[in-house]
């Protein structure tokens, strides 16, 4: 597994690296202290996931996440930030972050968050989930949705049958959670774009939701894990039209 840590504080990068190596002894870690260095790695390296600080010398706020996902839409990104506002968390989800981990988290919580996201789950601060679901109007658990799980605490991987999905719908869900637009998902799965859009519509209907952002919050709330994000190829993202890379489905 290849992971990029992007933060301008060397001590924080070193601490996060220790936690990651504790979880995955064979993990390969890359480091960047600026958005420019991050982009150089992202555009030239095969990576499984990026941990991104929002407060960088050359990329402050959500603009850093936006630039990274515009260039590398298939690269899963987990934001790690001192900013704990629900507004910022919501904006990062809109920009296709796979999760959000506050820097104020104690080591145990950070450990649980890392375990969750590297297993294909979504991690959001527990204190923000209720507010996000209230704002989105999705407080009620879907009749078709899976049972309640402990966010970040459920060690078992979900399966298509366990979620009541077909294998193709499950695969679409996994790519959707990692931040891919429908065009990129279609290329990954060897399908037509319209077919993937139908799968996405089926997923939202299955969980009684309206938008991808609601789906991300629901998965974080229930602690659902969809499998380790595979290595992503920069060349694949470069092959996507710019308009498709920027579009939120």
From TrEMBL:
The modification 4-aspartylphosphate is found at residue 53. GO terms for molecular function: DNA binding. Keywords: DNA-binding, Phosphoprotein. SUPFAM superfamilies: C-terminal effector domain of the bipartite response regulators, CheY-like. Transmembrane segments: none annotated. It comes from Caballeronia udeis. SMART domains: HTH_LUXR, REC. Residues 2-118 form the Response regulatory domain. The keyword Phosphoprotein applies. Residues 234-249 have a biased composition (Basic and acidic residues). Residues 152-161 have a biased composition (Polar residues). InterPro entries: CheY-like_superfamily, EvgA-like, NreC/VraR/RcsB-like_REC, Sig_transdc_resp-reg_C-effctor, Sig_transdc_resp-reg_receiver, Tscrpt_reg_LuxR_C. PROSITE patterns: HTH_LUXR_2, RESPONSE_REGULATORY. Residues 158-223 form the HTH luxR-type domain. This is DNA-binding NarL/FixJ family response regulator. It comes from the Bacteria. Residues 137-163, 229-249 are annotated as: Disordered. Pfam families: GerE, Response_reg.
């Amino acid at each position: 597994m290849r992971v990029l840590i992007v933060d301008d504080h060397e001590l924080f990068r070193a601490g996060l690296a220790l936690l990651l190596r504790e979880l995955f002894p064979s993990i390969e870690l890359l480091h960047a202290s600026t958005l420019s260095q991050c982009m150089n790695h992202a555009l030239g390296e095969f990576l499984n996931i990026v941990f991104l600080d929002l407060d960088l010398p050359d990329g402050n706020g959500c603009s850093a996440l936006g630039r990274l996902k515009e260039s590398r839409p298939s690269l899963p990104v987990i934001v790690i930030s001192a900013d704990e506002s629900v507004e910022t968390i919501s904006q990062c989800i809109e920009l296709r972050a796979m999760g959000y981990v506050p820097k104020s988290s104690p080591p145990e919580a950070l450990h649980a968050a890392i375990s969750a996201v590297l297993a294909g789950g979504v991690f959001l601060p527990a204190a923000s989930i209720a507010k996000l679901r209230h704002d989105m109007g999705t407080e009620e658990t879907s009749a078709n949705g899976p049972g309640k799980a402990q966010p970040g605490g459920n060690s078992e991987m979900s399966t298509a049958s366990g979620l009541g999905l077909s294998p193709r719908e499950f695969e679409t869900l996994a790519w959707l959670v990692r931040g891919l637009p429908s065009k990129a998902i279609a290329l990954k799965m060897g399908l037509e774009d319209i077919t993937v859009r139908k799968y996405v519509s089926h997923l939202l209907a299955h969980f009684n939701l309206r938008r991808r952002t609601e789906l991300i919050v629901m998965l974080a709330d229930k602690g659902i894990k969809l499998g380790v994000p595979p290595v992503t190829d920069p060349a694949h993202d470069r092959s996507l039209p710019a308009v498709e890379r920027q579009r939120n489905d």
